[in-house]
Amino acid sequence: MSSGESPVNPQSSICLLWLVICKTARFQFSNTLTSVIIIVGPIVVFLVYAATALFQEPQEETSVKYPPVNITTKVPYIFYSPENLVLAAVIEDVVHDLKAVGSQAFASASELNNALIGKDTYGYVGIEFDDSFSDINELPINVTVGLRFPLHLRKNPKMVWDNTSILKHSKMDIDYYQVEGFLVVQAKLSESLIRAKNEAVDLPEVILQHYPDVAEVDNLDNRVALCGVLFLPVTISAAYLAQMIVMERRDHLRDMLELMGVRAWIYWLSWFLVAFLLLSIPTVFMVLLLRWRYFSLSDSTLVLFFLLVYNLEVLTSAFMISSFFSDTVGVQVAIVIVHLVGCLPWRLLLMGYNPTLPRTIFVCLFLNSSLSMGLQQFIKSENLRLGMHWSCLFKRTDWDEFVHLGPILLFMLFGCVLRILVLAYMEQLRSYRNRKWYFPVQRSFWCRWNRRPRSDDFDVEGQETGIRGHPLIVRATNIEKVFNESVAVKELNLNFYQDEITVFLGHNDSGKSTIFMLLAGFLSPSAGEITINGYDLATNQRKARQFMCICPQHNVLFEKVDARWHLQFYCRLKGLSRREGSAETDKYLEIGRLQDFANTKVKNLPSGIKRMLMLCCNLCGNSKILLLDEPGTSMDPAMRSNMWDLLRRERKGRCIIMATHNMHEAEVVADQIVVLCDGQVIGYGTMGFLTQIAGTDSSYLLICTKMDTCYVAEVTNFLQIRFPDIKLHNEFSIYVTYELPTKHVAQYAGLFLELEEALGELNLAEISVCAPTLGSVFLRMGEDMRQSWNRISSFDLLSSPSPMSSLLNLLPTFEVREDDGSVKCCNQWRAIVGKKSLFTWRHRKFYCTIIATPIIICLLIISFAIFIFLVDHHLCELLVTDLSIYPKAVFVIDSPAEGNRFERRYKANVIGLGGTVRSTAGTPIDDYLLVEMKSDQVKVQHTFLAGATFDSDANSIVAWSNNKLKHGSPLSLGLVYAAIGQELAQLHIRIVNKPYQDTVQQAVRGLIYASTIEFAVLVFHYLVLSTTIFAVLPILERRSKVQHQQFSSGVSRSTYWLSHLSWDYCFYITMILPLIVVAGITIGSVLPVIVQLLAFGFSAISFTYMLCLMSNDFGKMFSIILYINMIGNYGFIVCLLDTVR
Length: 1141
Prior knowledge:
Elements: H1 13-30, H2 32-49, H3 51-54, E1 77-81, H4 85-98, E2 102-105, H5 109-118, E3 124-128, E4 142-148, H6 176-179, H7 182-197, E5 205-210, H8 220-250, H9 253-259, H10 264-293, H11 300-322, H12 328-341, H13 344-349, H14 357-364, H15 369-383, H16 405-429, H17 443-446, E6 472-483, E7 486-497, E8 500-506, H18 512-520, E9 527-532, E10 535-536, H19 541-544, E11 548-551, H20 563-573, H21 578-591, H22 607-619, E12 625-629, H23 637-650, E13 655-660, H24 663-669, E14 672-677, E15 680-685, H25 687-693, E16 699-706, H26 712-722, E17 727-732, E18 735-741, H27 748-757, H28 759-762, E19 764-770, H29 774-788, H30 803-810, H31 821-842, H32 844-871, E20 878-879, E21 890-894, H33 901-912, E22 916-919, H34 925-935, H35 937-943, E23 944-951, E24 956-961, H36 968-985, E25 988-993, H37 1000-1010, H38 1012-1026, H39 1032-1039, H40 1042-1048, H41 1053-1082, H42 1087-1107, H43 1114-1140
Parallel strand pairs: 1-2, 1-3, 4-25, 5-24, 8-13, 8-14, 11-12, 12-13, 21-22, 21-23
Antiparallel strand pairs: 3-4, 6-7, 6-9, 9-10, 14-15, 16-18, 16-19, 17-18, 20-25, 23-24
Helix pairs in contact: 1-10, 2-8, 2-10, 2-43, 4-7, 7-36, 8-11, 8-12, 8-15, 8-43, 10-11, 11-12, 11-16, 15-16, 20-21, 20-22, 31-41, 32-37, 32-38, 32-41, 33-36, 34-35, 38-41, 38-43, 41-42, 42-43
């Protein structure tokens, strides 16, 4: 396709999407190591975490039969009311049996309640009789006793005596009635009451035993394998992909794609599809492993769908976070931290608490918290021998269960939608126009037909006004750009025409690149209007930038893809078909003389060839508007000359705008030249206009060769008599030069004739004339501009030292030069530590975030625990033998001997309370229950409330309790002692669980101890993340060659690495101080933790240094170090959890 042809029609959105997907996939899969990490990493970590379970041969399912429960618990002190001698004897008996310190009586229930609340510590148990018992002389037949324990459990203050729920939380296997001491007080008090009523009674032995269980998978190891293994590897992969997106945005690759019609939704969708495919590959293998060992009864497609939804959630979260960052290091760390914090809502609000509907809905909205809840549902269904299937997504297995897997999936999808909306919001906020943060509520956002009024007047004063018959392509009117109150571009008014090359000339920081960014739409002007192809760039950016392409100062190329692919990709993006694109590629490979490098990867190309490839990528596809920012950088003279010829040939049908520092390049290439100084146009026109016609005070140079007898004053006088404004420019050796102003150019012919006639008289050998150059014009215009701004002093050559004096000042004197090796090493050490401290200070926000993260998380854990403690008030009484709260009550009885009186009374009581009694017909109760569980485990756990085995020969009763019920143990004991009391003492005993409101002072120790698991998980994830930051500076220094420069300057490798290690280790100690303090509060034993953390830090930093030598790509090394640290730190959390257990 020749450059003179009309531009082709743009590609459709579907075609663009496919091209960008192919680009993203090829770019990602060309990074072989990172692709392997993303695919294989999660599988390897899963195998490491669950090795003990996965590499064992599956065993036949075995049932679990529990031994009798030891209900003995230490009860230090007993308070009771009312004060009465009969009751005192009963309580004295209880104190004796419990081996308590003592007891204290109170006149009424209110005084008892106040005394319990007034204690600062736990350990006091209240026994509350009816206040009418204060005047009794003997125990009445009906005795109702309230046992007063703190509302929040002493062993775990996160839990309360919730007398409104029936089933236990799925993760709460502990019988808190036992560990809190309720059962032992209930049993001893019942026995004391029976003995007080009948002193001669022979009480049977009562044994409490839990129902047997079938084999379950719900244990700590599985929870770690399912939560930690799925969370961190996917997060690491998503963080790496997000930093690749940030890198493309930072290098303006995405901006170039937008110039060629790739909309934001196409770009993000392409990355999402490629990333989702990458994460789906290990997910399929994970499902196979989970299906084999953990979720054998669940539907594999449902497990896969759940994990894919989680992948979707992780990716949308990572992409959303990436829209807030422009730093590749910061975005990876931020994603890991945010996802780590995403686990906290579940651990703070549900883990260890009685779940409520509002808390559950709130937790489902957080990443990783919803993952934990979903996995909890899978584990629960497996334990119930049901498995999770599509048909039971919205079916509950518990009466008091709030959320099922179906709503969890819906909330996860809803969270994805929210994150996509935030991403879209940030995209709009970063768009060409300067939007306010509240732009969605502005009328202009929704009413797109309202256009900004155009300015019809165009100031062309001081510019060349000749119209050359070429179409106007780009028009800039009154453009200004201000950065932080610093004016980068001021009052820019320019026209750019087709078939012309306009060259910008200007010193460094004159605003050339800023103008290019404004014309390309990468930046929005602070004032003014840009019109391209007849469209306002501010209001119709897509049409205005159609057929535009930009070549920035740095090469925007894919390092691991060859040159031919680049040209074909850009041709296809610009609308060419596959065949046309191939022909266009061959054409520009030949024109740019790139045939020998067509199949060479970009990273192996010389810098000049890369620049030519970048230029050809811009020219191909017949781009109508080209913005070339110093395209000749890094080219040798021959290649630069070829580039000039190429641009002159290819300008037909194009509008080429170019920036350069090379005056000769501008003279050769430019049709129009724009001279910039400090963001302002000080000259605009053709080469001849700027050097000859424009008021630039340009001059011809008259060069005179003098003889030995020549007097320069006579020559000067001869010239100035005819033209007084002729100035002596320079006198060197035999040459004398004069400046001849161009305004007298028409009269210089006569001057030269007179001068030739007077050569002998003036003792001159010969004369020659040099025309004014663009360089001289540029320097003079810039100098005049600065003089008008009173800034000449900063550019006065006389005020600057001579080059030789500057060089001498740099040389060390004998007084400061150090030859002593030890002193020199110390100086180098101080210099490197100073560099490290400066780097840390410049990135203080990043490092302060790393230090503050554990402090914030610890404060959140403790604060939430105290907050929930204060708001969690459910003071309600519960009669432990009340069957009305259960939908269906079935009791199992086993009596080897017929006619046991306790059995008859037990049956009568159960039937009287509305329950049903089943006999095992001689089968032991545990075997009977196991058979029933294998047929319908849910039915047994929900309806078989309790049981009893009556052994007349041994004079014992086994009270069987359903451990899945929250109140199963006191119910079973209560029914047994009720039957015993009625048979032996005609005493009706009713035990009521009546908690009292405790205080934070009482629970603080228990709250801190209960946070030990959270602390262990915090340390695990924090150490995984924090130790990766020590690879940042070594990798950056090696990539920028600073490390090599230091070695070349005499710094030894040992000095370099040891100085880094000393600074980083001191910083590491600062990082772990909060962990040590929290460990001292939660665990109590600080020394083992300190030693382990210090040893880990030294080894981790040294190991990180070794790993960072593998690659200069920090994103890749960040992922590798995270994986290695995650596997290594698992030992810390396992040891800590073993200590806690």
